[in-house]
Amino acid sequence: MERLLLVFGGQSSEHQISRMSASSLYKQLNKDKYSITLVGIDQDGHWYQIDPSVNDFTVNGWLKNSQRIDDIYGLITQHDVAFPILHGAYGEDGTIQGLFELARIPYVGCKVLASSVAMDKIYTKMILERAKIPQVKSLYIKKRNDGTFVNITTSFEENKDYVGVIEKKIGYPCFIKPSNSGSSVGVNKATNREELIQYIEYAAKFDCKIVVEENINCIELECAALGNDDVCISSIGQILPAGDFYTFESKYQDENSKTMIPALVDVAIQEEIRELAKRAFKAIDGKGLARIDFFLDKDSNSIYLNEINTMPGFTSISMYPQLWMHEGMEYQDILDKLIALAKE
Predict the structure, then answer these.
(1) Residues contacting 55, CB < 8 A, separation 6+
(2) Is residue 47 within 8 Å of residue 39, measured between CB atoms?
(3) How far is CA 85 from CA 175, 191, 317, in A?
(4) Which residues lie across from 280 on neighbouring strands?
(5) d(CA 203, CA 188)
(6) Given CB 3.0 to 4.6 Å as the disulfide criterion, which of 21, 48, 98, 159 pairs with 314?
């Protein structure tokens, strides 16, 4: 029986989503195949060994009867493989992946480089540009240590007239996103200068690097990558958000938001998206898994890559497992495959 370390929670803004993912995942893991140690990280960064009788990690008492872990490194090295179902900073950004590398333990998901690059939207864009993968127009805004905001140019110079640059090159409406954040946390749509400044200041609460993107009349599409050297790409799924765009609230709290598999778009477009997804996964040196998100412009049928999620959600409504289940895989088989890829 393999000793599996399941790590969840974490210090990021996606802490609760990680606990939701872990609850779904733990129920589906084959208990006859894996001896599972449950480790929860609270929002202060403290590690706890969770009482296995608490199988719903979404409740307030999820740390009841848990034991604080002092020798974290020692605990990690006692296992055959780790499954860090952590989303966002300190979990999906290469940090915990580096810890597993030091401990010489196989782990599910992308390695340090791919995790850190894909987590940072700005540097993802740079690599995708080199790989000739289309993206919407965007600008890099940075909050300096003195509290002022500047536009970082393509030659990495600082322009203090960041508002003027955005209005000239992007215009309204536009989207403001923290560079290192997921699950649509901190994302807003600005329709005028007042909102632009307000939403940039809000995004800066999550990251000092901020992306401003043009608004297009689009359909949101997603696909799943599975594999190491020989990567498979799933069918294309379509997001039907309840609101104007797919916010954190519409994703996890609004029952009117829906997903559709396969997407209601032309087959040729779906095939092009799958090819772009495979190229993007290889461009960041992806391993194991990722969910890759695209925009399809309704007016021009142009395809744009939105982002790469190296540890996508595994909640009951998450697109990643749904996409592979549509391909005929059982949820439990997806998890077995990911663990096998980690050891590979």
Answers:
(1) 23, 26, 27
(2) yes
(3) 28, 36, 16
(4) none
(5) 8
(6) 21
Chain segment 5-61, per-residue pLDDT in tens: 999 999 998 899 999 999 999 999 999 999 999 999 999 999 999 998 887 999 998
Q: Average pLDDT of the chain?
A: 93
Q: How confident is the model at residue 184 (pLDDT cuts 50, 70, 90)?
A: confident
Which pLDDT tens digit goes with each residue over 77-104?
999 999 999 998 899 999 999 999 999 9
CA separation for the pair 340, 83 (Å, rounded): 11
- In one-letter notation, the amino acid at residue 165 is V
Using the predicted structure, report yes or no on whether residue 253 has a pLDDT greater than 90: no
Where is average pLDDT lowest: 53-67, 95-109, 113-127, 283-297? 53-67
Domains in the chain, CATH or no CATH each = 2-107 (3.40.50.20), 118-134+217-343 (3.30.470.20), 138-214 (3.30.1490.20)
Number of neighbours of residue 331 by Cβ within 10 angstroms: 18
Please name every residue paired with 65 in a beta bridge, in sequence order, or none if there are none. none
105/5 Cα distance (integer angstroms): 10
- In angstroms, the first-to-last Cα distance of the chain is 17
- Rounded-to-integer distance, Cα 259 and Cα 267, Å: 18
Q: What Å distances lie between residue 250 and 69, 139, 159, 169, 256, CA to CA?
A: 36, 26, 35, 29, 8
Nearest residue to 13 (alpha-carbon basis) of 248, 181, 191: 181
Contacts of 287 (CB under 8 A, 6+ apart): 109, 110, 111, 114, 228, 341
Beta-bridge partner residues of 189: 175
Q: What residues have CB less than 8 Å from 218, skipping those under 6 apart?
A: 295, 296, 297, 298, 304
Burial of 8 (0-12, 13-18, 19+ CB in 10 A): buried
Answer whether residue 254 shows pLDDT above 50: no
In angstroms, the Cα distances linking 194 to 139, 161, 165, 173, 201 are 18, 15, 15, 12, 11
Residue 98: its H or E element: helix 95-103
